Structure prediction request, 287 residues.
Amino acid sequence: MLSATSSVTYVWEPLHSLPGHGTFAASVPFWYTYICEENEDHFLDAFRRTLELRYSVRAELRHVRGPRDFARMSKQAASFASGRLRDTRRLLKDPFAVFSSGWFARRLGCGVVISVRHPAAVVSSLKRLRWTFDPAQLLSQPLLMRDWLEPMREELERARATPDDIITNGSLLWRAVYSTVAELERRHPEFIVVRSEDLALDPMSGYERLYATLGLELTPAAARAVVRSSQGSNKKEVKADKPIDIRLDSRANIDNWRHRLELSEIKRIRSLTGAAGDRYYGDRDWH
Prediction:
């Protein structure tokens, strides 16, 4: 939604764990790869190229498997070229960059917006889509563990023994992310942290505030995009085979986790997410 205005160019997940793709020239070794000054040499030039909107068709061609992929690649390449010519602001949308947010601010001059989503909503989506997460992706990063996640080491090590336990591993991943976000908020008061539920309840007011804070113009076209993507006539939840569909009834989507999860699972999620969950969601948000 922040790139719904023509003055912004959208860059999709540079740190998505693929072996090099059109939007980002460097390889990414882990999901949620952590970047700091000690390991930035591998990433810094690639990110500077991304921020210059230099799209690598050659790298992306390795992932093209048919007409749909080719169309996506052509659209991305054209968007980069247009943004470069018009000198638009760049929006790097990347959940996997969360641990590196401070580095993006310090070394690349990025403004940071972080969206928080209810832990039960996140875990229920993982359960519905059967998306598992291997804690080894975090444990195998010594700098990440040292700087952010050492207090969770024992729990993450235990979770490695049950890779198919989506409730436990999803809850621990949520806590790893948002305990870090809580500390990032303390260290960087300039970071913008919003709850996705608050945006979903009143999308237009929420995005008006975000656009104003970020110095963006909420054009009529951008306002229409916000309405189209959140209005009550949209579907209530995404299809399992189309998990990135962005047009939903945003209010209805807030509560989908309540019918996806058993009561025992909800209690376990709240227990496992602990103080990080309580920071952003109180009793009213759970019952």
The chain has a mean pLDDT of 91. The beta strands are 8-12, 89-93, 113-116, 192-195. The chain has 16 helices and four strands. The first helix runs from residue 44 to 51.
